[in-house]
Design a protein that fits this description.
Elements: H1 25-40, H2 42-63, H3 74-86, H4 94-110, H5 119-132, H6 135-155, H7 161-243, H8 248-273, H9 281-284, H10 299-308, E1 313-319, H11 326-346, E2 351-357, E3 361-368, H12 389-399, E4 403-408, E5 413-420, H13 428-434
Parallel strand pairs: 1-2
Antiparallel strand pairs: 2-3, 3-5, 4-5
Length: 435
């Protein structure tokens, strides 16, 4: 585990998960500035902290006037500065710095100087070890300054051996606890950072999936609109060309149907593409009351276009009709549109559309009776090869928990859509009957 630039874990400096800074006022600002500075100038910060520790040690040594220890002379200055200098590298090699510092400290005590002078530096080096190493190496390293402390108490004839023993046990234990707590906090911060990154990637993946699903939905809608309307246009244009010289009124009627179908297709496509181009009222306007949004309310218009193309269509409605939710309503309309377009492209025979409103589901069935029942032969639309219409119907129904089944016999095809629905609310008459 990497260690912070000032001896603290990396979560307190640059490069690790950042914990919240103290809240409020100048202290929060100062903390943030110090953290940024430590990331840009690590060695300068380490040197400043070592110099501060050395200043404390020198102040204790110079200010000692008890006369119980050797005077703070030149060698004392040199040893104290040398020990302080080792603290600059404590972040790079914490255990080595602790051992080297304690060796200099022990030599300092052996020469008869005040043993407390360099104790603050030893505690700082021990904290660095506890903040950067597991519990086992930390406990082993803590025994070194504790022994030096006890060694100073044994040489101090004026002091209490019990007090030296207590200090050699208590202070290293407290420092190890604080350093280990900082290390555990840093590890939890790193785990939290990893989880945060994973959640960020999951959100991005969900966003990509949502975009992909939306593109797929728009592609299906465009397929349904283009395939249906162009099929009608192709049939009507072929009919107009076929009867242009022999039956001009029929040709004009076919061309009128082409014009209306193209206009309706453009309106629907502008509405769908408005989702991709927000902020343009001329594109994103809601459907007018005269032309509602695609749904079962527009089934009559759909059937009229199919009948105008020369396909006889019969409608059967069973059960109690009721409005479906917007999603299933659009799904049912697109199903009928795609199924009738397939009849127009591949069969053209008499077709029965059944809309069955059951209490817990809605079933739409499109059954054609094959080409041999066509009232007259119409020009076949161009480009009516195999497509992905059935796959699109299945996927669209699956979004709402529904199914699509296709059956074929010697007469033709039957395509059936089943969508689960909520049961209708009980009528007042049923309430009265129960009472």
């Amino acid at each position: 585990m990497r260690q912070g630039h000032d001896g603290f874990p990396d979560d307190l400096v640059e490069g690790g998960p950042q914990h919240p800074s103290p809240a409020g006022g100048w202290w929060s600002t100062a903390y943030e500035r110090m953290r940024r500075f430590s990331g840009r100038r690590p060695w300068l910060l380490d040197g400043a902290l070592a110099a501060a520790t050395g200043a404390v040690s020198l102040g204790i040594g110079v200010g000692d006037s008890t006369g119980l220890y050797r005077d703070f002379d030149g060698p004392a200055w040199a040893l104290t500065c040398l020990a302080t200098l080792t603290l600059v590298g404590r972040r790079r090699a914490p255990v080595t710095v602790l051992l080297l510092f304690c060796a200099i400290w022990a030599g300092y005590i052996t020469l008869g100087y005040h043993p407390v002078v360099n104790s603050s530096g030893a505690l700082l080096a021990l904290y660095t070890v506890a903040a950067a190493r597991p519990a086992g190496p930390t406990v082993a390293s803590a025994s070194v300054p504790a022994l030096v402390w006890l060694y100073g108490g044994l040489l101090d004839r004026q002091g209490s051996l019990l007090a030296a023993l207590t200090q050699s046990l208590v202070w290293p234990a407290v420092v190890c606890y604080l350093g280990s707590a900082a290390r555990r906090l840093n590890e939890r911060g790193q785990q939290l950072a990893a989880l945060t990154e994973e959640l960020r990637r999951d959100r991005q993946e969900l966003a990509r999936r949502a975009v992909s699903d939306e593109r797929l939905r728009i592609a299906r809608d465009l397929h349904d609109v283009v395939a249906h309307h162009l099929s009608v246009v192709s049939v009507q244009a072929g009919l107009a060309w076929y009867v242009l010289s022999t039956d001009p009124p029929a040709a004009r009627s076919a061309l009128r149907t082409v014009r209306d179908t193209v206009g309706e297709a453009l309106t629907e496509m502008r509405g769908m593409l408005g989702v991709l181009r927000p902020g343009q009222p001329e594109i994103t306007d809601s459907p007018t009351p005269e032309q509602p949004a695609p749904g079962l309310a527009r089934v009559d218009d759909l059937l009229s276009r199919i009948r105008a193309a020369g396909v006889p269509v019969r409608t059967v409605v069973t059960g109690v009709p009721r409005d479906l939710p917007p999603g299933p309503d659009l799904c049912a309309f697109r199903f009928l549109q795609e199924a009738l377009t397939n009849v127009l492209n591949h069969s053209g025979g008499a077709t029965t559309v059944t809309l069955d409103h059951q209490p817990d589901q809605f079933v739409a069935t499109v059954a054609d009776e094959g080409p041999r029942h066509r009232s007259r032969r119409l020009p076949r639309p161009a480009g009516t090869g195999g497509g992905r219409g059935l796959i699109g119907m299945v996927e669209r129904a699956r979004q709402y928990g529904g199914t699509v089944r296709v059956e074929q016999d010697e007469h033709g095809f039957t395509v059936r859509l089943t969508l689960p629905t909520s049961p209708p609310p009980p009528s007042p008459e049923s309430h009265a009957a129960r009472r």
